[in-house]
Specification:
Blueprint (H helix, E strand, L loop, with lengths): L2 E12 L4 E3 H5 L6 H8 L3 E3 L7 H16 L8 E5 L10 H8 L6 E5 L5 H15 L4 E9 L9 H4 L4 E13 L7 E9 L7 E3 L12 E3 L1 H23 L8 E4 L4 H11 L10 H4 L6 H11 L8 E8 L3 E8 L1
Helix pairs in contact: 3-4, 7-8
The structure holds oxa(dethia)-CoA (UT7).
Oxa(dethia)-CoA binds next to α2, α6 and α7.
Length: about 325
């Protein structure tokens, strides 16, 4: 029996031109390059310039992914944008991207699962495509977290950056085995009891303001490794695969120590880890597609490779997806 699979047929990304190094931050915040590198692995981050809103970054990434796939907006019938830093409370960032790429058919909407947003968006798009209701989806992670940061709070402002990444998923027939190309399995979780550990202290229905990101970093750190290890174990169990079968591990890029500890817990070889946190910082929902785009562009990820993506973030939310590229 034939199975529909959501196959990645294009990838693209966009980073704002402005780069802020740890040395730049030392001039305005009571911090040091040593502290940031040792605790997080971050050396620099990109920061959006005036007029570079989340939808602008997302549109650049979307166009790059369409070009990479050899497709146009006419070929897409679904756009999902994962973001927690939308241009406006509404309409969605996805509809702004839809208009910008000149698409008037199909459907476009946002998903909000903070740093796990891209994994949630891939999973959602996959459900649409394998149901047969839609044929090709643009799945985008895009953020301008620089605009949610309290630049006087050294415990958070050194961690985040701006950017966007996108993939095109296409429904294709597979054999129903793990040799198929496409999304093989995905596993989403959330637990709203952890709200206070990572949140924004404003919003339309509470303060009427945008608010600032607040995080109890140590608490988030404490939960992160166990949570992402759980959902990756679920992905291995669902597909009968193991860490040894992976070609690439493309985790959410929040902290090099969390990435390395998660890989070690699951026995994933260091050489298989794609790391961009040093150059991008934590770009929340954009971090995984930015890392995927980097590893495709430099020739590491190739068609047929087995790629694990995973993330954990505010809510808490967490999730994994295993993709045969
Ligand atoms: O993407 C969503 C998920 N988010 C995450 O995954 C983030 C998870 N958390 C982390 O990555 C880490 O907890 C941090 C990088 C945020 C912090 O690292 P840590 O090793 O947990 O440090 P800490 O919060 O325990 O702070 C250690 C010390 C404190 O000083 P005292 O109290 O020991 O005197 C902080 O005040 O480091 C101090 N500190 C800083 N020092 C220099 C905190 N921020 C800074 C800073 N520069 N920017």
């Amino acid at each position: 029996m034939k199975h529909l699979r959501s196959v990645v047929c294009g990838v693209g990304s966009y980073l704002p031109a402005k780069v802020v190094t740890n040395a730049d931050l030392e001039k305005t915040v009571d911090t040091s390059d040593d502290w940031i590198v040792q605790r997080t692995g971050i050396r620099q981050r990109h920061i959006a310039g005036e007029g570079e809103t989340t939808s602008v970054l997302a549109t650049h990434a979307a166009r790059a992914a369409l070009d990479n796939a050899g497709l146009t907006a006419a070929d897409i019938d679904l756009i999902i944008v994962a973001t927690s830093s939308p241009d406006y409370t509404f309409p969605s960032t996805a509809t702004q991207v839809q208009a910008a790429i000149g698409m008037t058919h199909g459907a476009a909407f946002d998903i909000q699962a903070v740093c796990s947003g891209f994994v949630f968006a891939v999973t959602t798009a996959d459900k649409f495509l394998v149901s047969g209701s839609h044929r090709r989806a643009l799945v985008i992670g895009a953020e301008t977290f620089s605009r949610l940061l309290d630049w006087n709070d050294r415990t958070t402002c050194v961690l985040f950056g701006d950017g966007a990444g996108a993939i095109v998923l296409e429904a294709r027939e597979g054999a129903g085995t793990i040799k198929d190309r496409g999304v093989l399995t995905s596993h989403l979780r959330s637990d709203g009891r952890h709200r206070e550990k990572l949140y924004v202290d404003g919003g339309p229905s509470t303060t009427g303001t945008v608010g600032h990101l607040r995080m109890s970093g140590r608490d988030v750190f404490r939960h992160a490794v166990g949570m992402v290890a759980d959902v990756m174990t679920d992905a291995f169990a669902a597909t009968g695969t193991s860490a040894e079968d992976l070609d690439w591990f493309v985790p959410h890029q929040a902290n090099r120590r969390i990435i390395d500890a998660s890989a070690e817990k699951l026995g994933i070889a260091p050489a298989k880890i794609v790391v961009t946190v040093d150059r991008h910082g934590n770009t929340s929902a954009a971090s995984i597609p930015l890392a995927l785009a980097a590893a495709v562009a430099d020739g590491r990820i190739k068609p047929g490779h087995l790629v694990m993506i995973e993330a954990m973030g505010g809510g808490f939310t967490w999730g994994s997806a295993l993709i045969r590229w």
